Inverse folding.
């Protein structure tokens, strides 16, 4: 008996029982993964240890974020690292090397916190593109982290907001746990929280990213989801496949990254123009303090001239700062002018101005009567302590002796 007819029958029955072949992604991952990608306008990217959803958003030249706009030619710009840190003098950072990073996590830190959404923004010839990596489930974390890791290298400049204390430690911990790498590879990190506080905290006090957007860019988020609710939206997806608020989370993440981009520009341009882009005297004073720490005294004098033309004038403590700089550069006449302008009340700034004027008139001008006048004025200031009074009494005794000797001669 021939075996061929039996073989043909088996093949025929097998073809009737076999279902059409599915694509690799369809067969390997649950239907809810496809739902996630479809609803969010992303695509599923399979990896060796899972699959993540990738959402790309491109903002072309001319796109506005409040009163700031993405301009053509941004990919040719570079910033001085010195604008963001007092430790780096000559390093230039090209804008295309900058990766603007923001994460959304399931918690506020620690090894249990998972970055379920990682946003990376970059400038290119086409505009500013934000790539968002979202994991459908915890088991897909390694696949996402692997691709994020491969998108960074020793030439990358990571730009974050409080990333040094939060985002980067979370990512590094999760990469170690998932055996991706022992640490993130990048060349430089700009944490704009510290740069923004250094420049704007005196005027704004509240240096959260949302308040900086409002005050600096005139950008107000419409229907933005609060940050503390973001983890709950992801948990809703995990438990019930609820996606009604997930697009709001993506938008929240994109707003953060776009604000990082413009904030980096604003800070760098304020430094590189030596305050030419700033209009508030408080911000100019903060910039001059930054120059003082770098011992860039000539730049402080330039800022001083801008402050004289600013719309809200000098604060007494700022005036003392500028007077101290003029004294340091031996331009004492300008110091005297400033000290005299703030020596008329009883504040602590007036006290120190009177002390400086007493020193000047005693040792430089040899005008002992004026030195006595400012010494007496200093005794009436609110901040005077017993120790100050004892020192002032010694000064009065010395000045009276010098004054008597001058009269005798």
């Amino acid at each position: 008996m021939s075996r061929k007819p039996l073989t043909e029958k088996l093949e025929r029955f097998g073809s009737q029982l076999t279902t059409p072949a599915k694509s690799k992604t369809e067969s390997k991952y649950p239907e809810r993964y496809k739902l996630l990608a479809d609803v969010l306008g992303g695509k599923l990217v399979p990896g060796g240890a899972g699959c993540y959803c990738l959402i790309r958003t491109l903002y072309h030249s001319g796109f506005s974020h409040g009163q700031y706009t993405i301009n053509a030619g941004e990919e040719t710009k570079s910033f001085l690292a010195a604008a963001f840190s007092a430790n780096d003098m000559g390093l230039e950072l090209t804008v295309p090397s900058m990766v603007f990073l923001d994460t959304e996590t399931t918690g506020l830190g620690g090894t249990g916190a998972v970055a379920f959404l990682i946003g990376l923004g970059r400038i290119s010839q086409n505009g500013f593109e934000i790539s968002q990596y979202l994991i459908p489930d915890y088991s897909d974390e390694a696949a996402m982290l692997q691709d994020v890791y491969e998108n960074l290298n020793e030439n990358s400049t990571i730009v974050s907001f409080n990333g040094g204390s939060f985002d980067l430690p979370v990512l590094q911990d999760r990469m170690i746990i998932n055996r991706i790498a022992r640490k993130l590879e990048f060349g430089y990190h700009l944490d704009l929280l510290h740069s923004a506080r250094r420049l704007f905290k005196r005027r704004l006090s509240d240096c959260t990213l949302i308040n900086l957007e409002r005050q600096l860019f005139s950008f107000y988020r419409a229907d933005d989801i609060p940050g503390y609710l973001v983890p709950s939206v992801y948990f809703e997806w995990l438990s019930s496949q609820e996606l009604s608020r997930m697009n709001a989370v993506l938008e929240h993440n994109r707003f953060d990254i776009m604000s990082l981009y413009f904030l980096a520009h604003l800070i760098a341009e304020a430094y590189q123009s030596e305050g030419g882009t700033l209009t508030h005297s408080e911000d100019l004073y903060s910039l001059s303090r930054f120059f003082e720490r770098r011992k860039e005294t000539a730049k402080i004098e330039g800022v001083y001239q801008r402050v004289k033309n600013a719309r809200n004038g000098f604060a007494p403590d700022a005036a003392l700062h500028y007077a101290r700089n003029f004294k340091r550069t031996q331009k004492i006449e300008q110091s005297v002018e400033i000290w005299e302008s703030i020596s008329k009340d009883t504040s602590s700034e007036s006290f120190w101005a009177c002390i400086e004027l007493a020193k000047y008139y005693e040792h430089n001008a040899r005008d002992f009567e004026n030195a006595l006048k400012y010494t007496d004025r200093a005794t009436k200031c609110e901040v005077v302590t017993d120790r100050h009074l004892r020192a002032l009494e010694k000064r009065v005794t010395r000045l009276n002796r010098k004054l008597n000797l001058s009269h005798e001669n």
Remarks:
- The radius of gyration is 32 Å.
- The chain has 16 helices and eleven strands.
- The longest helix spans residues 246-272.
- The chain has two domains: 27-272, 314-408.
